[in-house]
Amino acid sequence: MDNLQIATPEIFLLAATCAVLVVGLFTQAKSNTVYWLSQLTLVITLIMSLTQIGDDATTGFSGAYTVDSLSASLKSWVLIIAIGIFLYSRDYVGSRKIARSEYFVLGLFAVSGMMIMVSATHMLTVYLGLELLALSQYAMVALHRDNSEASEAAMKYFVLGALASGMLLYGMSMIYGATGSLNLNVIGDILAGNSESMSAERTIGARFGLTFLIVGIAFKLGAVPFHMWVPDVYEGAPTSVTMFISTAPKIAAFAMLIRLLVGGLETLHADWQQMLAIMAALSMVVGNLIAIAQTNIKRMLAYSTISHVGFLLMGIVGTTAEGYSASMFYAITYAFTTLAAFGVLLAVSREGFEADQLSDLAGLGKRNVLLATVMMLAMISLAGVPPAVGFYAKLSVLQAAVGAGFTWLAILGVIMSVIGAFYYLRIIKLMFFDDPTDTAEVRPAGDVSAVLAINGAAVLALGIAPGIIMSACIAAFG
Amino acid sequence: MSFPLLSLTIWLPILAGFLIIALGDGPARKIAAAASVLTLLVSLPLYFGFDPSTSAMQFRESIAWLPGFDINYELGVDGISMPLIILTTLINVIVVISAWEVIKDRPAMYLGAFSIMTGLMIGVFSALDAILFYIFFEATLIPMFLIIGIWGGPRRVYATIKFFLYTFLGSVFMLIALIYMYREGGTFNILGMHTLELGKDQQFWIFLAFLAAFAVKIPMWPVHTWLPDAHVEAPTAGSAVLAAIMLKMGGYGFLRFSLPITPDASARLDMFMIAISLVAVVYIGFVALAQRDMKKLIAYSSISHMGFVTLGIFIAFRLIAKGDDAGVALGLEGAIIQMVSHGFISAAMFLCVGVMYDRIHSREIADYGGVINTMPIFAAFMVFFAMANAGLPGTSGFVGEFMVILASFKTNFWIAFLAASTLILGAAYTLWMVKRVIMGPIGNDKVAALTDINPREFWMLAILAIFVLLIGVWPNVIGSVMHASIENLVQHISTPKY
C-alpha cells in the first residue's frame, strides 16, 4: 500500500486520462468538454503533487520509483506548464482540422510519461516513462494529418526517436552487464565500490554503456550533435504541439539526465563530464549562430532551444550540487519563458493563418500591445538580460561552471549569449519599430490574455524575486 | 535602519514610469512632470544631508535578497557617486520639459521609458552589491533600446541594435569577472571586493574584463563607434540622457571597480590607458572638426571630453609613482568634475540642436546660417553652451579640464601638451559650428521663418545654464563633497595588493 501511496498523482492522472478518453468518444467535435475535463484532471493532479513537496524521500516498487523533493517540485512545474499549454492551445486546436479530444488526451498521456520519468530510479521505469512521452508526442506531431509537413516531421521524429531509444536501451543493457543491476541506486553503489569490488573490465563495460546513454539523453534534449530533428519537428508540427515539445519535456529530460548520470553513474563523472562539456559548447555555438539565419520563427526558436540546452548542460558539467540546482532552475525558467513566447504565437495565429514567419510579428506593438509586451519580456529573458528571470538562470549556471574550473566554457557561453541577443532583439524590433503588414485584429480570448499577462509578469517578477524557485532548486539537491 | 532614501529615489521613478504607461497618453505628461520633480526633491537630501568629512558609504541600506547566492540588496553613496545621482535626477526633469509638446507618437511610453531609466541609472550609481550593480547597468539598455528604436531617426534600427550589442558584449565579460571574484573572495559586496587580495595575473585579466565593460560604455577609442550612431539617431532627450548620464556609468565604473579592485594591474597598464585617452582627446577632436551633422559633431566632442575623464583617472598612477598624492587627487577630482560638467553641457548642446531640429527638421550644419537674426535669445544660449563646451574659464567646462591638465603637467610635459591641445581643438570645432549655424546673414528661407524659443524651451536651457555657471565659478559645490572619498581612494590604490 505504501508503494501505491507515493504514486497517487500518477495513478489518478492515468485513470482520469482513460476516463477523459472515453468521454471524448461521446462528445461533439466542437464542444469544450474534453478540454475542461483535462484541465480539471491536471489541476487535481497538481494539488496532489504539491502536497508531496516537503515529504521525506521515499522509494517504492522495489526501488523503481522515488518521490523526493526533486521529483515533487519538477512534477508540479510540469503540471503547471501543461495547464498553460492546454489553455493557450485550446482555440488554436479548436479552429483547425486537429482532432481536439485526441490532442488533449495524448497531452495527458505525455504528462503521465513525464511524471514517471521524473520519479524513475530504475532503468526500466526511466524507459517506460520516456516511451510513453515519446509515443504520445509522435502522434501529436502527426495530428494535423492533412498537412504533409506535419506528417514528414512526425515520420522524422519517430524514426530518429526510435533510433535514440535503441541507443539508450543498448547502453542500459551494457550497464546491466557490467553491474548486474538496473536499479540506479544499486548501480551507483556498485560502481562506487561500496558493495563489491569492480574489476577494470567491468568498469570499461559500464563506460561503454554510459556513452550510449549519453547519446540517448542528448537526443531527447536536442543537444548538438544530436539536434538534427529539432528544427524540422518544430517547424512541421502544429504550433500548439511545438509549444508542447519545447517546454515541459525539457524539464522531464533534465530529470532523466539527473537520475541516470548523477543518481546512477556519478562515479564515472570524469567520463561524462567531458562529453557534456563538449556538447554544451557545441550546442551554444551551433544553436546561436544558426538561429540568426532563420526566417521562420519556429525554426528560430528551435535553434534557440538548442543553445539553451547548451547552457543547461553547462550547470551539470561542474558535477556539484550547486550546479545541478542551477540547471534545474534553468530548465524550469526556460520552460515557462518559452511557454509565454509560444503562447503569443498561438494568439496571433487564427483560422487559416499561421503566425510562423518572423514578418508575421511586424508591428504587433500597434496591433496588440499586451501580446507584444509579453513577447518582449520573453525575448529579454531568453537573451539573459536582467532584470528578467533568464538572467538569473544564466548567472547561476555560469557561476557553477566558473566554480568548477570551466571558465573557458563560461566565457564561450557569454559570448554566445551576446550573439543570441541579436536574434531576440530582432523580434522586439519587428514588434515595436516596424509597421504592421497585416491589419487583421488580434484579439485572443479573455482568459488567454489574462494568463499570458500573468505569464509575462512572472518572467519579470521572478527576475526580481528569483529566490522563490531558487530555494526549491537548492533544496532538491541539498 | 534609517529612512530608505536611496530606495525611494530609485523606485519612485520606476514605479511612476509603469504608472505612466498604464494610464496611457492622456495624463502622461502631468504624471511624468510630477514624478520627475518629486524624484529631484527626494534626491536633494542626499546632497544636503551628506557628511563630507567621511569616506564611508552613507545612506546605507542592506537587505538579504538571494541568500542562497549571497546577493544582497545593498545601497549606499559616497562623494564619487552622490554628485552623479543629483545629475541624474536633474537631467530627468529637463527631459520631461524637453519632451512636453515635441513627442506626439505614444508620449506615455516615451515618458514612462525615461522615468524607468532614471530609476535604473540611480540604481547603478548607488548599488554596493556587484550583481545588483550589474542588473541596473544592463537593465538601462532595454528602455534606451526602445527609445532609440521607436522614436529615433531614419537609421534607428541599425543604431539601436549596435548600441545594445556593443554594450552587452562589453558587460558580459565583467559578469564573468564578478563571478570569478565571488569564487575567490566569497562575497559580491563591492567594498569587500576592494580588499580582495588578487595576484598579478588575476588582476590583469580582471582589469581587462572591466575595461571591456567600461571602455565601451564611456566610450574610449577605438570602441567608440556605437556612440555617434546612437547619438545621431536617438531622439533629442535620448541623446541628452545618453551623453549626460549613461556615459558616466563607464567613468564611474572605472572609479568604483577597476581602480580599487585591480590597482596594480591599473598601474601596470596606465601608459596604455593614457595613450588611448590621448588618442580620444586629439584624434577624435580632429574627427569632430570634419563633421557636417551637428549631433554627430557633439557626439564626437563627447568622446573627446570623456578622454579627459579616463586621462584624469589613469594619470593617477604616474603621480603615485612620483609620490605626489595631491596631484593624484587633483586628477581624479578633475575627472569627476569633468563628468558632471559634461553632463550639463552635452545635454544642453543636444537640446539646443533639438530646438532647431524641431523647427527645421534638419541636423545638417549646411541647412542653417544666421540663426541669430531670427532667434536672438536662443542664439545667446547656444553661444554660451558652445563656449562652455570649448572650456571657457568661468564655465564648468573649464574646471575639470584645467585640473586634469594641471595633473598631467606634474608627470610629463608631452602628455600635458597633447591634453591641452583640446583647448584649441575644442574651441575650433565648437565655435566653427556656431559660426556656421548661428552667425552671419540669414542662410535660407527656412531660417528666415524661425521663431524664437518659447518659455518652456527658455527654462529648459536656463536651468542648465545656471548649473554650468555655478560649477564654473564655484567648483567646490561638488568638489567639497568628494574630497574625503577621493583621499580614501588615493590611499587605497597607492598600496600594492601583492
- The average pLDDT of chain B is 88
Estimate the helix proportion of chain A, in percent: over 70%
Describe the strand arrangement of the main beta sheet of chain B, using strand numbers: 1-2
Low-pLDDT residue intervals, each spanning 5 or more residues of chain B: none
Question: Which structural class is indicated by helix and strand composition of chain A?
Answer: mainly alpha
SSE sequence of chain A, one letter per element: HHHEEHHHHHHHHHHHHHHHHHH
Helix amount of chain B? over 70%
Give me the oligomer status: heterodimer
Rg result of chain A: 21 Å
Largest sheet of chain B: 2 strands, antiparallel
Proportion of strand residues of chain A:
under 5%
Largest sheet of chain A: 2 strands, antiparallel
Poorly predicted runs of chain A are none
Strand order of the largest sheet of chain A: 1-2
Helix and strand sequence of chain B: HHEEHHHHHHHHHHHHHHHHHHHH
- Tell how many strands the DSSP assignment of chain B holds: 2
Q: Beta-sheet strand percentage of chain B?
A: under 5%
- Number of DSSP E strands of chain A: 2
Describe, in plain words, how this protein is organized in 3D.
The complex is a heterodimer of chains A (478) and B (498). With 478 residues, chain A is an all-alpha fold. Chain A has a domain at 265-478. Chain A is 76% helix and 1% strand. Chain A has a two-stranded antiparallel sheet with strand order 1-2. The longest helix of chain A has 32 residues, at 148-179. In chain A, 61% of the residues are buried. By secondary structure, chain B is mainly alpha-helical. Chain B has a two-stranded antiparallel sheet. In chain B, a hairpin with a 4-residue loop joins strand 1 and strand 2 (71-77). In chain B, helix 1 runs antiparallel to helix 4 (107-126). The model of chain B has no long low-confidence stretch (mean pLDDT 88). Chain A binds chain B through residues 380, 385-387, 391, 395-396, 398-399, 402-403, 407, 410-411, 414-415, 417-418, 421-422, 425-426, 428-429, 432-433, 466-467, 470-471, 474, and chain B through 65-69, 131, 134-135, 138-139, 141-142, 145-146, 149-150, 156-157, 160-161, 164-165, 168-169, 172-173, 175-176, 179-180, 182-183.
